[in-house]
Amino acid sequence: MGAKLASREPDSSTVEGAAVTAAAPPPKTKRRSHSRAEQRAGTAFAVPGIVLLLVFVIGPAVVSLVLAFTNARLISPTPPEFIGLENFRRAFTEDATFHRSLLNTLLFACIVVPLQGGLGLVLALLVNQKLAGRNFFRTVFFLPVITSMVVVSLLWRFLYQEDGLVNSALSMLTGGAWAGQAWLANPSTALGAIVVMSVWQGVGFHMIIWLAGLQTIPEEVYEAGALDGTTPWQRFWHLTLPLLKPTFVFVLITITIAAMSLFVQVNIMTGGGPVGSTSTIVLQIVQKGFQQQQMGYGAALSLVFFCIVLTLALVQRRLTRDKDS
Amino acid sequence: MNAATAARRGWTYVPMTVLAAFFLFPIVFMVAASLKTDHQIFADMNSLKAFLPVGDLSLANYAAVFDRVPFWRFLGNTLFVTFMVTAFGLIVNSMCGYALARMRWKGRGLVFGLIIATLILPFDTTIVPMVYLVANLPWVGFDGLTPVLEFGWLNTYRVQIIPFIVNAFSIFLFAQYFTSLPKGLEEAAAIDGAGWLRTYWRIIVPLSKPVFATVAILTVVTSPATWNAYLWPLMTVQSEELRPVMVGVQYFFQLDTAWGEVMAYITMITVPMVIVFLVFQRAFIQSIASAGMKD
């Protein structure tokens, strides 16, 4: 990645001293060839971004790293004390809610990643055909992405009620055989209900990403394939999919990170219940660190979370890269 | 196209229509229900009337929303914060991207590494220490004309804006675009006597409108601080007159929820964005597509 950003080569081989430049023709006197002026300008251009990045991105990460080993509270008269690995011991050996949250989050990611990635690809293939009205369908599939997750969560909370639309639709489709249930109040259906609405909201985004990937494949590739007498399915499997690999990596990593960060839906729809069946890591970080004010503990959970996400991203990157060679 | 292909084409409308219904039904239901009384909403639930504006219709729910929340104030706050985060974000991130892509300076490699490293750091992981940090940050306020050093950013507009200006992904997108511009633009500008800032503003920016549009749209759609801001203002802004629209949903959480009012409120905070999307649809799709083209 870094290699792509090679800077333009300044002609540093030319003049270095100001005295020499002064003698040169006027237009060329300016410092384009002077690395010192470029050094100053480059730093000046980058400094606002660097400062903000250090204070608001790197800063909190470092604070988190330090607080994780203390008993700091959000508002407390006594200064925080260093307590070593106590927070991590508590998280891994005592905190059953955290174990449940860890499990729920991983389960959610394991279901959502293939479901959303796969459905996104199906939608992209559908709207990539030269059909009348394909723009209309693309717009419709994308509409939930524009709808805020806060709105979507509230809306679906209503749809999932015992007397809500999902049950009445199922009852209608089954001719009244469906008894109906409160989807979010049942520990065995709550997480699944959240999976469905999360995919509903997010899949349009990845449809667009897949679509962009599909459109980079030149028509001739398919024409050549068709001449060889292959079936559409063979063409998809042996031509389209391999050519979509860069897109696949992007889709995989972005859905994984988003799924691991599951929070808003749960916060608005269930608050982590019933009996912890929809509690997630980020929900725990916010509840422990903010609502219960145990900031040190919340920071420790953040650190665990960060390590998990980082590991997943690196593993996925490595796996997808190995297939290349 | 022969008859068989045409028939197959025709059949693909079946799954597409089913899927379209799946993606549309909650939104249509939301708008229809916002016009009905709670009684009517539940009465219509068992038939297709749930999706149609039929029966006892009124704007009463919308009127009730204005009684319950200071809607215009919330909307104004959201628009202001969204504008500031996006505008400052474009300036700061593009200049940083430009310095990384086309200028030579010490520390460039280090800064670039730092930005790549923060790309995968989800915002949620640091939200708690971030609250702690902004609660203690200094700020120079003004008492009349006398500058006063204050501490704490909670309950302000700045806490909703400044931490979200810089964005590693935006910098990355800018840097990548600027790298693709032809070499020698700066040399040509230098011959005309233009300085770095002037070159950047007069030559680079006009050549880079697509990437500016992309970053602006991605910021509005995906940043946790713009149109969708919820968790962060919930944690850092207690005073009502500074709150954004999404936090307003909290005003509707109660024991016996008035669903008609909820539907009216969420329709009101969804429709403006949908209109903006429909108007600038091509640009929206384009910018999301180009985000995925990076690796």
Q: Measured on Cα atoms, how large is the radius of gyration of chain B? A: 24 Å
Helical content band of chain B: 55-70%
What structural class do the secondary elements of chain B suggest? mainly alpha
- Taken from the alpha-carbon principal axes, the silhouette of chain B is flat
Largest sheet of chain A, in brief, is: none
Query: How many strands, which pairing sense, and closed or not: the largest β-sheet of chain B?
Result: 2 strands, antiparallel
Largest interface: A-B, 109 and 107 residues
Count of DSSP-assigned helices of chain A = 14
CATH class of the largest domain in chain B reads: Mainly Alpha
Mean pLDDT of chain B: 88
Write the layout of secondary structure elements.
The complex is a heterodimer of chains A (325) and B (295).
Chain A lengths: L17 H6 L11 H33 L18 H9 L1 H32 L6 H13 L2 H11 L5 H9 L16 H26 L3 H9 L4 H12 L1 H16 L3 H6 L11 H11 L3 H28 L3
Helix pairs in contact in A: 2-14, 4-5, 4-8, 4-11, 5-8, 8-11, 11-14, 13-14
Chain B lengths: L2 H9 L1 H22 L3 H7 L15 H9 L2 H32 L5 H12 L7 H10 L1 E6 L2 E6 L6 H4 L6 H13 L4 H7 L4 H12 L1 H14 L8 H6 L22 H10 L2 H9 L1 H12 L3
Antiparallel strand pairs in B: 1-2
Helix pairs in contact in B: 2-14, 4-14, 5-9, 5-12, 6-9, 9-12, 10-11, 12-16
Notes on the protein architecture:
Chain A: Keywords: Cell membrane, Membrane, Transmembrane, Transmembrane helix, Transport. Chain A: Residues 1-11 have a biased composition (Basic and acidic residues). Chain A: The chain crosses the membrane at residues 41-69, 106-127, 139-159, 191-212, 243-264, 296-315. The complex is a heterodimer of chains A (325) and B (295). With 325 residues, chain A is mainly α. Chain A has a domain at 96-322: MetI-like (MetI-like fold). Helix content of chain A is 68%, strand content 0%. Chain A has helices at residues 18-23, 35-67, 86-94, 96-127, 134-146, 149-159, 165-173, 190-215, 219-227, 232-243, 245-260, 264-269, 281-291, 295-322. The longest helix of chain A has 33 residues, at 35-67. The radius of gyration of chain A is 27 Å and the shape is globular. Chain B is mainly alpha-helical and 295 residues long. Chain B folds into two domains: 1-58, no CATH class; 68-292, MetI-like fold (Orthogonal Bundle). Chain B has a two-stranded antiparallel sheet with strand order 1-2. In chain B, α2 (13-34) crosses α14 and α5 (71-102) packs across α9 (168-180). Chains A and B meet through α2, α4, α5, α6 and α7 of A and α2, α5, α6, α7 and α9 of B.
